Amino acid sequence: MAKLDFGPIADTTRRAEIVALLRRAILTGQLEPGQKLNELRISEQMRVSRAPLREAMRELVQEGILTSIPYAGTFVIDVTAKDIIDAYSLNKVLDEFAIELTWPQRDQRFFDELDRRHEAVKQATRAVDTTRQIETALQLHGLVYEWADNSVLLETWQRLTSRLQMYFALHQRALNEPVPAEGVHETYVALLKGADLRAAQHHAREHIDVDFEELLAYARGLEKRASKN
Amino acid sequence: MAKLDFGPIADTTRRAEIVALLRRAILTGQLEPGQKLNELRISEQMRVSRAPLREAMRELVQEGILTSIPYAGTFVIDVTAKDIIDAYSLNKVLDEFAIELTWPQRDQRFFDELDRRHEAVKQATRAVDTTRQIETALQLHGLVYEWADNSVLLETWQRLTSRLQMYFALHQRALNEPVPAEGVHETYVALLKGADLRAAQHHAREHIDVDFEELLAYARGLEKRASKN
DNA sequence: TATTGTTAGATTGTCGACAATCTGCTTGTC
DNA sequence: GACAAGCAGATTGTCGACAATCTAACAATA
Q: For the HTH gntR-type domain, which residue ranges apply (chains A, B) (predicted)?
């Protein structure tokens, strides 16, 4: 008999769906940084009472993409240049660690999954679906975290990913032009398949630095605009 | 006129107080791993309605010390040996990074604060207040994170700290004996004051490994007990 | 005029009640 | 006795209403 492992059943609470909806709205930039979330308005739009909506917002606050001030409101986090720098510098450290943990565990299933995700990025790129392009690229990079078999590291990465996705989406939205060249991930994938751990780790750093410069430029623009208020 | 900077006003919502109460109960081990939190019972004990309690629980779920299953309940996280290993190995990496970031920023205020926190640990040790001993020791180690001036790193550390504190509390509670020797932190503090970055980073690793072995032994005990059910 | 009180409106925080779901037991059937 | 169906109690999820608090505009006062 074939061994079937069923995934967990879908979360059927309103709360979970609201979380997903809000997260998506924030990470795609539909909700802008600093914007206030009016509970009554949103709950009416979603045809839901405020209770599950508020619980959902509490989760997103802890997730780090919303911020809440008692009796004042809940807002989408502001994005500063420093936040982006901080997130990226931590990301480098974590990437190195994740690759190191994953390295001895690589097997055929890993390589297959790597190819699958790489393919997804290329497809999104061809379709010029920028949102999906960001999503798939992050999923490609997330593989080493999933493979590292360290639950706390994975959790940390997922939190970080939320922000990175938000940053990229904002950046992309501001420039309104397609994201980086097509072949960027080629070397990354190749190195992960190779035999040189150090090289892979080193490239992870460099590769990150490519888009980093662009993001920073965008962030500095934000800074300037904010200081005018 | 002296420049006074007022800190933010105290959170006056019931939710915030509930979060603090519950967190403390969990981190000190008053609420045991795996234990279910009955909303009605707790809300009655606290003389609060279920709404703010549920919101508080949502926060602690995202914080990683509670886990929730729809329509089944919310439970204190289970502690497995692997969780402890994972948390510690990530902690090592983060410690190295935090020390590196802090290094060039050390000044007199840093050293003073270092001494102050070190003193707090020693005082708790003398008073044989084991809970406070754990708390102060973690605060001592947290200084480099606060000084590193990287908000995402600090956030990550704080999440990790919750778990570490819980693990130590459980370990201490199980053994029912005073925690490690008195002079453990002496070298750590001295190295942070010194001029050798590499030595400080290296010691942070070794130092951590000391208590690590003890914790692991406790965790393995947990594993055995769990497998009997 | 500048500052301080007051008030109305809007929004968040909290409450108590109801609906949906789960668990364990009982009942009925073979 | 084994097993499925169904019922009762307990618990979680959701709702609508009320209380507490904030904001901004306006009035009062020096």
A: 12-79
Distance, in angstroms, between A61 CA and closest chain B CA?
Answer: 8
**Per-residue pLDDT at A56 exceeds 80:** yes
How far is residue A213's CA from residue B6's CA, in Å, rounded to a whole number?
36
Taking only the tens place, the pLDDT of each residue in A14-26 is: 999 999 999 999 9
What is the three-state SS of chain A?
CCCCCCCCCCCCCHHHHHHHHHHHHHHCCCCCCCCEECHHHHHHHHCCCHHHHHHHHHHHHHHCCEEEECCCEEEECCCCHHHHHHHHHHHHHHHHHHHHHHHHHCCHHHHHHHHHHHHHHHHHHHCCCHHHHHHHHHHHHHHHHHHCCCHHHHHHHHHHHHHHHHHHHHHHHHHCCCCCCCCHHHHHHHHHHCCCHHHHHHHHHHHHHHHHHHHHHHHHHHHHHHHHC
Looking at chain A, the whole-number percentage of residues with pLDDT higher than 70 is 86
For chain B, the residues whose C-beta falls within 8 A of a C-beta of chain A are 11-13, 16, 51, 54-55, 58-59, 61-64, 70-71, 82-83, 86-87, 89-90, 93-94, 97, 150-153, 155-156, 159-160, 163
Distance A73 CA to D29 C1' (A): 34
pTM over 0.85? The answer is yes
Residue-wise pLDDT tens digits, A100-143 = 999 999 999 999 999 999 999 999 988 888 889 889 999 999 99
Angstroms from B62 CA to nearest CA on chain A? 6
* Residues of chain A contacting residue B201, judged by C-beta atoms under 8 Å apart: none
Question: Is A90 close to B153, i.e. CB distance below 8 A?
Answer: yes
Q: With an 8 Å Cβ cutoff, are A90 and B13 in contact? A: no
